[in-house]
């Protein structure tokens, strides 16, 4: 009789232990699920922030390129104007020299 009582109590203890573990494992699984969801949300948030930062950097780079292109166009225009002035001066001097060469010498 004592062995049956011992077996019954052991079975009851094992059953309660397994039930307790089952609840804890369920709680642990819920906690893991919650942690995974939070991690996914944070990863999504970080990806969105990274996308916004990349977008801002692209806009800034495009702005810098546009400014650089504008500056280059201005420099090209200035250089062309100076080249035109130099060409006019050279042509005027050439015409003056040709006139002097063609003029009768006194």
Q: Give the strand content.
A: under 5%
Alpha carbon gap, first and last residue:
155 Å
Number of strands: 0
Write down the oligomeric state.
single chain
Write down the Rg.
Answer: 45 Å
Shape, principal axes of CA atoms:
rod-shaped
Would you identify the regions where 5 or more consecutive residues have pLDDT less than 50?
Answer: none
Give the H and E element order.
H
- As a percent range, the share of helical residues equals over 70%
Task: Report on the architecture of this protein.
The chain is mainly alpha-helical and 106 residues long. 95% of the residues lie in helices and 0% in strands. It has one helix at 2-102. It is rod-shaped, with a radius of gyration of 45 Å. The model has no long low-confidence stretch (mean pLDDT 77).
What's this entry about, in short?
This protein is an all-alpha fold and 106 residues long. It has one helix and no strands.
Secondary structure topology:
Blueprint lengths: L1 H101 L4
List keywords for this structure.
106 residues, mainly alpha, 1 helix, rod-shaped
């Amino acid at each position: 009789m004592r062995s049956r009582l011992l077996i019954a109590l052991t079975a009851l203890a094992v059953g309660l232990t397994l039930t307790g573990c089952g609840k804890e494992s369920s709680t642990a699984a819920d906690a893991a699920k919650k942690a995974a969801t939070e991690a996914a949300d944070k990863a999504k948030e970080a990806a969105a922030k990274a996308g916004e930062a990349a977008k801002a950097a692209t806009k800034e780079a495009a702005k810098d390129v546009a400014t650089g292109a504008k500056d280059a166009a201005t420099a090209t225009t200035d250089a062309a104007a100076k080249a035109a002035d130099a060409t006019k001066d050279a042509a005027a001097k050439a015409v003056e020299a040709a006139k002097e060469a063609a003029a009768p010498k006194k």
